[in-house]
């Protein structure tokens, strides 16, 4: 999968290395680089709006695909529906045959 894409942290990751990206569990991260089979490069905005970036282990995250909310169905209010199809426009059933 080519970068960029988003992942969600499964676990907290904290490292003393300056070039590592530290994050808490649940953090959504944009992967910007696939360094190798074990590491991603990525970034996210912290709670203060400051961009955090660095490398982090792939096994701490999973691919994140938010589900789209269901599309609301469009229904017309009853008055609009009646105005669009007045009762007199609706054909009456034919009269019964003469006896």
UniProtKB/TrEMBL annotation:
InterPro entries, sorted: Mti1_SH3, SH3-like_dom_sf, SH3_domain
Keywords carried by this UniProt record: SH3 domain
Protein name: Myosin tail region-interacting MTI1
Domain of life according to the entry: Eukaryota
Biased composition (Basic and acidic residues): 78-88
Start and end residues of each SH3 domain: 2-66
Region (Disordered): 62-99
């Amino acid at each position: 999968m080519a970068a960029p894409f988003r992942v969600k942290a499964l676990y907290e990751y904290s490292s003393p290395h300056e070039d590592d990206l530290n994050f808490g569990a649940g953090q959504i991260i944009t992967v910007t680089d696939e360094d190798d089979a074990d590491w991603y490069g990525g970034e996210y905005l912290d709670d203060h709006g400051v961009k955090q970036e660095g490398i982090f282990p792939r096994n701490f995250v999973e691919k994140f695909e938010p589900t789209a909310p269901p599309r609301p169905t469009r229904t017309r209010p009853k008055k609009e529906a009646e105005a669009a199809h007045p009762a007199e426009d609706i054909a009456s059933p034919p009269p019964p045959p003469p006896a």
